Amino acid sequence: MTANAALRDYLLSRRSVGIGFLAEPGPNAEELETLLTIGLRVPDHGKLAPWRLIVIEGDARAEAGERLAAIAALRHPEYDAAALDVERRRFLPAPLTIGVLSTARHHPKIPQFEQLLSAGNVAFNLLNGAFALGYAASWTSRWYAFDPEAAEMLGARYGERFVGFVAVGTPRAAIEDRPRPVIGDHVSRLTFS
Ligand SMILES: Cc1cc2nc3c(=O)[nH]c(=O)nc-3n(C[C@H](O)[C@H](O)[C@H](O)COP(=O)(O)O)c2cc1C
Relative to the CA of 142, which ligand 1 atom is closest? Predict the structure, then answer.
């Protein structure tokens, strides 16, 4: 293998762009297909494909927001108009959001833990794929990944759970990086005395 300097430099500097900073334009149909292809090209023990993706774009964004706001109003009667408006705009202004579902099931050889990790890889590949195509992206879960009614409204079937939502768009502003972990704080060598 030859070294891929562009990929190395990307990985050394990659960072998310928050949903509030993602605007039009988003990927066109061809780019979306490429992005989804990248997303599904992940390590997957046993080739179970233990994930499913939900594409949220166009008018479905506002409609999903309306329905989220309705569920949020039931959960939180104390929410005022501004709080409900936050829910209404969960999938706006980002032009595209891809929900990533883990479909992990019991398997005699492949632990569900590994299947779940594979779904996490799908989300991260989508994140990186968005940047590879010239867009920016962010991975969030939010309350609606864990609320069964909201998750079902967003496409989850029985037994499935969202590992998150990858919002994709064009960044409206340059985003400052955050402090990054120091290797020495998180890495040790296996030694035997
Ligand atoms: C599984 C998962 C769920 C997340 N959910 C949220 C969330 O609900 N809200 C949020 O503000 N950030 C959430 N984050 C963090 C965002 O992705 C955040 O933008 C990220 O930590 C930025 O890191 P990066 O610049 O290295 O990509 C989540 C991250 C992961 C891995």
Answer: 8
- Nearest atom within ligand 1 for CA of residue 15: 25
Taking the CA of residue 145 as reference, the ligand 1 atom at the shortest distance is 8
Task: Confirm whether pTM is higher than 0.85.
Answer: yes
Question: 59 CA distance to ligand 1 centroid (A)?
Answer: 25
Please give the DSSP secondary-structure letter assigned to residue 141.
Answer: -
Report which protein residue has its CA nearest ligand 1's atom 6.
140
pLDDT tens by residue, the chain, 193 residues:
899 999 999 999 999 999 999 999 999 999 999 999 999 999 999 999 999 999 999 999 999 999 999 999 999 999 999 999 999 999 999 999 999 999 999 999 999 999 999 999 999 999 999 999 999 999 999 999 999 999 999 999 999 999 999 999 999 988 889 999 999 999 999 999 8
Q: How far is 67 from 152, CA to CA, in rounded Å?
A: 11
Angle between helices 112-132 and 5-13 (to 10 degrees): 110
Q: Which residues contact 118 (CB under 8 A, 6 or more apart)?
A: 42, 43, 44, 45, 48, 50, 51
Contacts (Cβ under 8 Å, ≥6 apart) of 113: none
